[in-house]
Design a protein that fits this description.
Layout: H1 2-8, E1 27-28, E2 34-35, E3 51-59, E4 64-71, E5 81-87, H2 100-112, E6 116-121, H3 132-146, H4 150-155, E7 156-166, H5 168-179, E8 186-192, H6 203-206, H7 216-226, H8 240-243, E9 254-260, H9 266-279, E10 284-290, H10 301-316
Helix pairs in contact: 1-2, 2-10, 3-5
């Protein structure tokens, strides 16, 4: 996996194919356990980096923590940064905030938006099937509300707190928004290429058998590992537009839904955005016409900057 580590360090991105796809390398054993592919991990940044980072515990009994990313130098008081609570992708099954390309992505996000990023280490399936990840996400939102962390206290503006996720993390951000509305903390949801599904294939899913980033076989495998035992793909965790009552969306904060045209999930994401707006009455900004594949922002700087530009526009439109 050294080629992926190099990509995270600004070397040319590796040539992705179905054959070297990380999701296809998840080995599922007869007893239901899995062996995950090895990926390069990075420690928190050393002092002097363009973006400083450090890990703080969330729930030691569950092994959850937050990796904080702060532009260095940080803004001088009284200027404060919006706070972005970020949930990484990986189909609920693999990766962490320390995964090289997610660490690099959060560094770039903190510098480009700019913002204070808190990236969550959450419990993974199948050892901890959904809704375990949602519970960890809600705990992270509650932590932001009560924390005395010195970086958040000195540099974060919790009146501009956004919950964001990519892929499975985008799915988590939506459900975290539902679970934490009563806290009245989250200013908006940033739902990038949310990981969604359903029993009936969409056209973009049906065309994805040999997709380099999210081949159909891997997509099916991930949902089989993540959903509660016995659940099908129309379960609310996978297909909320079908299984969640629109009235349950009342009070959901303003939301940005972003996606890439060549993503096998793009049909789902566009349907989801319409459902939020038309059925749930949520204020939704839709940016689902970006070029690129699923997760291309992790490896292609131009795709990352398109995402960061959409984030900046969304945050600045709040007028705070």
């Amino acid at each position: 996996m050294g080629d992926i580590a190099a990509a995270a360090c600004d070397a040319p991105a590796p040539q992705m194919t179905k054959e070297n796809n990380l999701f296809m390398q998840i080995a599922v054993h007869p007893d239901g356990t899995v062996t995950r592919p090895e990926v390069p991990l990075l420690p928190p940044s050393a002092p002097g980096a363009a973006v400083a980072s450090r890990d703080v515990p969330l729930d030691a009994s569950l092994g959850t923590y937050l990796r904080l990313f702060l532009p260095d130098p940080a803004p001088r008081s009284p200027a404060r940064l919006p706070v972005v609570l970020f949930f990484h992708g990986g189909g609920f099954v693999i990766f962490s905030p320390a995964t090289a390309f997610y660490h690099a992505h959060c560094e770039a996000m903190a510098a480009a938006v700019p913002c204070l990023v808190a990236s969550l280490e959450y419990r993974l399936a199948p050892e901890h099937r959904l809704p375990a990840a949602y519970e960890d996400a809600a705990s992270a939102v509650a932590w932001l509300r009560t924390t005395a962390d010195p970086w958040v206290a000195a540099h974060g503006d919790l009146s501009r707190c956004y919950v964001m996720g990519s892929s499975s993390g985008g799915n988590m951000a939506f459900f975290a928004g539902l679970r934490t509305r009563a806290l009245d903390l989250v200013r908006g949801l940033l739902l990038h290429q949310p990981y969604l599904g359903g029993v009936e294939r969409t056209p973009s899913e049906a065309r994805s058998e040999d997709d380099a980033m999210l081949p159909l076989e891997a997509n099916d495998r991930l949902w089989s590992l993540a959903l509660p035992p016995g659940a099908d793909r129309d379960h609310e965790f996978c297909n909320p537009a079908r299984a969640v009552a629109p009235e349950a969306l009342a009070g959901l904060p303003r939301s940005l839904v972003t996606g890439n045209r060549d993503d096998p999930l793009i049909d789902r994401q566009r349907e989801f955005a319409r459902w939020l707006r038309d059925q749930g009455g949520v204020e939704v900004v839709v940016r689902t016409d970006h070029a690129g594949s699923h997760a291309s922002e992790l490896f292609v700087p131009e795709r990352a900057e398109e995402l960061f530009a959409a984030m900046r526009e969304f945050v600045s439109a709040d007028g705070a």
